[in-house]
Amino acid sequence: xxxxxxxxxxxxxxxxxxxxxxxxxxxxxxxxxxxxxxxxxxxxxxxxxxxxxxxxxxxxxxxxxxxxxxxxxxxxxxxxxxxxxxxxxxxxxxxxxxxxxxxxxxxxxxxxxxxxxxxxxxxxxxxxxxxxxxxxxxxxxxxxxxxxxxxxxxxxxxxxxxxxxxxxxxxxxxxxxxxxxxxxxxxxxxxxxxxxxxxxxxxxxxxxxxxxxxxxxxxxxxxxxxxxxxxxxxxxxxxxxxxxxxxxxxxxxxxxxxxxxxxxxxxxxxxxxxxxxxxxxxxxxxxxxxxxxxxxxxxxxxxxxxxxxxxxxxxxxxxxxxxxxxxxxxxxxxxxxxxxxxxxxxxxxxxxxxxxxxxxxxxxxxxxxxxxxxxxxxxxxxxxxxxxxxxxxxxxxxxxxxxxxxxxxxxxxxxxxxxxxxxxxxxxxxxxxxxxxxxxxx
Length: 442
Prior knowledge:
The chain is of the alpha+beta class. The chain has two domains: about 5-400, Peroxisomal Thiolase, Chain A, domain 1 (3-Layer(aba) Sandwich), CATH 3.40.47.10; about 405-440, no CATH class. Helices cover about 30% and strands about 20% of the residues. The protein has 13 helices and 17 strands. The chain has helices at about 20-25, 55-60, 75-90, 110-125, 130-135, 140-150, 165-175, 195-200, 235-240, 270-280, 300-315, 325, 335-350; strands at about 5-15, 15-20, 100-105, 155-160, 185-190, 225-235, 245-255, 290-295, 320, 350, 375, 380-385, 390-400, 405-410, 415, 420-425, 435-440. Strands 1, 2, 3, 4, 5, 6, 7, 8, 9, 12 and 13 form an eleven-stranded mixed β-sheet that branches. A two-stranded antiparallel sheet has the order 10-11. The termini are close together.
């Protein structure tokens, strides 16, 4: 138990709502992909997006502070989601606790939305706009989130496109296992911007309708925005703090295939390699996985590649689905968002619908889960996050094993399972008169 890592808190804020409970209710119902209300873009009336229906001023009010300068939509979403995660984990990052607490934050757009807002002002009215232009940096977003919550021991930023927050969780796990941190706060945040919309549109990767992951007629993704964070720590420490963990973080891997700047290997080599490594890290067999939260972007290349990898690795592929049809593709936040969906699958023993699916792809003929359903017996869930440049990440989660300390009584001697003492009875029973040998073990 000493090195077992658990998730002791989690926070999420997407178009589906804020918090785990509201998110789970939304997963049972319908997509939140709609036409935009607040984003100023020439594509706003043409493409559906998973936009959080609050403007930046309303987000500031929710964050319970009056600071406005430099706080972008991206950083505000992160502040709010992290606030919920800290409350769930009963963690006061502003206290004088000796715990070494670190923030590993992921983002791809940083404060691009702020730069877009002031771009023409800078052109038309030369002056000092450094306080705005500084916010474009991804690290600026991270440090504003850290400052807001009083986290200073260790703060860093990861930006590996769509696998960013999955890699943030992995880095946090490694730092815990190497005893460099006591608490690792890991996740990511990204807001919708014209920059990302125009970029994906230039790649012809945005669907004008609701996306259809793993469908033969899929035609691109729906972009979204949001933030999600996980609080990682050792199980022993969580118990000492009196916190009941949500799940155990059992395995993870990253694999960089560098096949193409924006496309995966169609055979799924990178996806295959990262999934098998995540299983090995968790000491799991393919038959142990009951549900896969797939990357499933609904683009032509990703879904073919991921399907080929799943068929190659699993043979008979377990229940799987893409939840991006609910949240849109939240870019850097996607890995953490879908890690939380994996946690919800374990907590509620349920699998989530791959919306809008009708016809299997002829290459794989795989059929995802098409309706929300309870599935008792889920013990291990895999979550995939694949990114541009072939930066692939995969993680697995499982329920927290029952390692509570029990006190046993044998022949008037009280022994604690905390010290893991094995009892080996010689002969066929431990009746009075038969010798009992007590051997310490592991």
